[in-house]
UniProtKB/TrEMBL annotation:
Gene: glyQS
Recorded catalytic activity of this chain's protein: tRNA(Gly) + glycine + ATP = glycyl-tRNA(Gly) + AMP + diphosphate
Major localization class: cytoplasm
PANTHER family the UniProt entry points to: DNA POLYMERASE SUBUNIT GAMMA-2, MITOCHONDRIAL, GLYCYL-TRNA SYNTHETASE/DNA POLYMERASE SUBUNIT GAMMA-2
NCBIfam families: glyS_dimeric (TIGR00389), PRK04173.1 (NF003211)
This protein's name: Glycine--tRNA ligase
UniProt organism field: Maribacter cobaltidurans
Enzyme class of the recorded protein, top EC level: ligase
């Protein structure tokens, strides 16, 4: 556990040092659970957003995008259920005066059980070597089976209690599991209470005439209220999807784990409108499709898993999370939800306007069912960044810190380095920069010895370093160095564009999704 915490501290420190993420309003001692993205962070974030948009919208003929406003009519949130049911179960520790989400305390307890399972598996792997059958071991080892059953039983009980709003049993479960306050070690807990997470605000020039509004807690509702607008204007036929990326706001009382849980965050959501009765096949389709998108980035298949929901929202008939192995354990990265006709049906009821689709094939009107995929852009950023940050021991006995970002997402694709700041080398380096900048985000670096510059670009996540030396003046070749392997080769300046393009082109990366399908 201590090692996990140390690794996570390194992630946070590196993110600040290299201009990826800063604490908001830091000169005023910061604002809790609010963060700013620096010059590198904003590029990485943009690249993740574009990678999602291309896969979701551009490559699907029947999916289009919108950008709905953050402010929405307040009845929207009544219809969506957020006014009455958008709550977190909170519990206070009487001694430390710290507040926690009761469900997270229980999930973290189960996370420790998962860690025990992993330790058993690793021990067995060492013992049996190449003959080790991981799946069989997990299914048959008595201790592992007991751990799995224990975890399932705890989560199942919690889900049922939360569904019934039996908050007394949630507290009882915390006490039975002997869960202590992470800060103080105290087990002196208050009762569990529900807390609504929406931020309220006002719309209007004067206080007496102002309308009570909310900052949107999710982007999905902007899609639902625009269903007919998009369907008619785009002449869309079911099945079709509407995608959106944008800011959402939640008054997280227990915000923690850096950018994993923030009060102001960005979502990438797609609502897929389907014929009632087809939801199961579309649910399976989008589960498979979204996992392939994640795996196309090469962050390691072992770092992902599906988690099927024990507790379903009242409107859902199926729900699963894609969980990622963050530095603090497996946590939700993306949700895939079969939402039935709740959303459009509810807005139809509250607005008094019909939100139906006339299906020419079946010759009938119906309220479409919805299949949702929803991913947190900030969480995706953290998944990519934390997985890519590595400390490597080198053959010469030294070590290096390297940020092995997928090249397609890296903020800067190449750094152009003149070997020395004289003899016309900077001028040639700038010519190369001027040519490449039309196609890629590139940078120029002439400060310090070239070895030190390589290390700096490694830590920055830059996939290529291009060094201009005296030979360049003779034969128009440069040395290109590859971040991940540290290998260097001599190439013609004229070939640089195609070499970089091959490594960072979204088409090349996204085609891996097709390869997995084959």
């Amino acid at each position: 556990m201590a090692n996990q915490e140390d690794n996570f501290k390194k992630v946070i420190s590196h993110a600040k040092e290299y201009g990826y993420v800063f604490q908001s309003s830091e000169i005023y001692d910061g604002l809790s659970a609010v963060y700013d993205y620096g010059h590198n962070g904003v590029e990485l974030k943009k690249n993740i957003r574009e990678y999602w948009w291309k896969a979701m919208v551009q490559l699907n003929e029947n999916i289009v995008g919108i950008d709905a406003a953050i402010f929405m009519h307040p009845t929207t949130w009544k219809a969506s259920g957020h006014v009455d049911a958008f709550n977190d179960p909170l519990i206070d520790n009487k001694d430390s005066k710290k507040r926690y989400r009761a469900d997270v305390l229980i999930e973290d307890y189960v996370g420790k059980i998962d860690t025990k399972i992993e330790k058993e598996v690793k021990k067995a792997e060492k013992r049996f070597g190449d003959n080790f059958n991981k799946q069989k071991f997990i299914e048959t080892n008595p201790r592992v089976v007991e751990y799995i059953e224990q975890g399932k039983s705890i989560l199942s009980r919690m889900a049922k209690s939360l569904e019934k709003e039996d908050l007394a049993d949630v507290k009882a479960l915390i006490e039975e599991l002997d869960i202590a306050c992470p800060m103080s070690g105290s087990k002196n807990w208050t009762d569990v209470k529900q807390f609504n997470l929406m931020f309220g605000t006002k719309l209007g020039a004067s206080a007496e005439n102002a309308m009570d509004l909310y900052l949107r807690p999710e982007t999905a509702q902007g899609i639902f209220v625009n269903f007919l607008n998009v369907q008619k204007a785009g002449r869309m036929k079911i099945p079709f999807g509407i995608a959106q990326t944008g800011k959402a706001f939640r008054n997280e009382i227990v915000a923690r784990q850096f950018i994993f849980r923030m009060r102001e965050f960005e979502q990438m959501e797609m609502q897929f409108f389907i014929q009632p009765g087809t939801q199961q096949e579309w649910y399976e389709h989008w589960k498979e499709n979204r996992m392939k998108w994640h795996l196309s980035l090469g962050l390691g298949e072992e770092n992902y898993r599906f988690h099927d929901h024990e507790k379903l929202a009242h409107y859902a008939d199926a729900a699963a999370d894609i969980e990622f192995r963050f530095p603090f354990g497996f946590k939700e990265l993306e949700g895939i939800h079969s939402r039935t006709d709740f959303d459009l049906g509810s807005h139809e009821k509250y607005s008094g306007k019909k939100l139906q689709y006339f299906d020419h094939e079946t010759n009938r009107n119906y309220v479409p069912y919805v299949l949702e995929t929803s991913i947190g852009l900030d969480r995706m950023f953290l998944a990519v960044f934390s997985n890519s940050l590595q400390e490597e021991e080198l053959e010469n006995g030294t070590s290096r810190t390297v940020l092995k970002l997928p090249a397609v997402l890296a903020p800067t694709k190449a750094a152009i380095l003149p070997l020395v700041k004289k003899d016309g080398l900077p001028e040639v380096a700038h010519e190369i920069l001027e040519d490449l900048k039309w196609d890629f985000n590139v940078t120029y670096d002439e400060k310090d010895a070239v070895g030190r510059r390589y290390r700096r670009q490694d830590a920055n996540g830059t996939p290529f370093c291009i060094t201009v030396d005296h030979q360049t003046l003779e034969d128009q070749t440069v040395t290109i160095r590859y971040r991940d392997s540290m290998e260097q080769e001599r190439v013609a300046i004229a070939d640089l564009k195609s070499i970089i393009h091959k490594a960072v082109d979204m088409r090349t990366w996204l085609l891996k999704m097709e390869d997995q399908r084959a």
